[in-house]
Amino acid sequence: MKAIRRGTLAFKILKGIGLTGLFLISMSNPRFGVQLLTGFKEYNKREKQKFRESLYYLKKRGLVKIIENSSGGFTAKLSKTGEKMLESIDIDCLELKNKEFDGKWRVVIFDVPVRLNIKRHAFTERLKTLGFIMVQRSVWICPFRCRKELAMLTQFYEIEKYVTYLETSFVDNEEAWKKEFSLIKLVA
C-alpha cells in the first residue's frame, strides 16, 4: 500500500486518530476535528472542506472506519490497515534519542530464516539508519541506548524470536570501535 505523504492533512488526521484511539466529530461543531489537529484557531470554509475530504480519503483507502452516532456526529477510528500504516510511518521516523556513550556496547545478533528474507533485509537496513555497524554477518554493534527502538523494530517486522539483544561493557579493540563511531577524536 502506498504511504501517505508526511505533512499532509490526511497524515495529520491519521496520526491524530492513532494517538487518541478514537476521533469523535460533532456535526454541531464542524471545526472540532480541524481545531483538534491544528491548535484551536478559526478556519474558513475551504479548510473545513479540506478536512472532510482528507478524512473521507482515509476512509476510501481503508485506513479509518467512520461510524455515525445517534447524536448526529460521527466517530472515526483506525482500521487494521490504518494501524499497520501508522506503524510503518513510526518505523520510518524512528531514530535513537540518546546518542551519549555510557561505556556500554549494544550488540544485536539475529538468525532470521531464509523464508523471511524480505523482513531480514528491511531490518538490517533500519539498523544501518539507526547507526549500527556490522561486526559480522547478522551481528551488529552500537554504543548508544537503543533497546526500545530495537524492540519496536523486531515487533514491527515480527522477528522477535530470532533476535538477541546484548549489553556489554567490554569489546575487543574498543579504541578502534570508538573511532568507528567517532566517539574519540583522532590526535594529529
Give structural notes.
There is one protein chain. The protein is α+β, with helices and mostly antiparallel strands and 188 residues long. The chain folds into two domains: 9-91, Orthogonal Bundle (Arc Repressor Mutant, subunit A), CATH 1.10.10.10; 95-180, Alpha-Beta Plaits. Helices cover 43% and strands 18% of the residues. A four-stranded antiparallel beta sheet has the order 5-6-4-7, covered by helices on one side. A hairpin with a 2-residue loop joins strand 5 (133-136) and strand 6 (139-142). The radius of gyration is 22 Å and the shape is elongated. The chain starts with 8 loop residues before the first helix and ends in an 8-residue tail after the last helix.
Strand and helix map with partners:
Blueprint: H1 9-20, E1 22-25, H2 32-38, H3 45-60, E2 64-68, E3 74-78, H4 80-93, E4 105-110, H5 117-130, E5 133-136, E6 139-142, H6 147-156, E7 163-168, H7 174-180
Antiparallel strand pairs: 1-3, 2-3, 4-6, 4-7, 5-6
The CATH topology of the largest domain is: Alpha-Beta Plaits
The tally of beta strands, per DSSP, is 7
Mean pLDDT: 81
The string of secondary-structure elements, in order, is HEHHEEHEHEEHEH
Largest sheet: 4 strands, antiparallel
**Count of DSSP H/I helices:** 7
Backbone CA Rg: 22 Å
**How much helicity do the residues have?**
40-55%
Instruction: Name the shape in a single word.
Output: elongated
Whole-Å distance between the termini? 52 Å
- Helices and strands: which structural class? alpha+beta
Counting structural domains, the number is 2
The CATH first-level class of the largest domain comes to Alpha Beta
- CATH architecture term of the largest domain: 2-Layer Sandwich
Strand content: 15-25%
Largest sheet strand order: 5-6-4-7
The residue ranges in which pLDDT falls below 50 over 5 or more consecutive positions are none
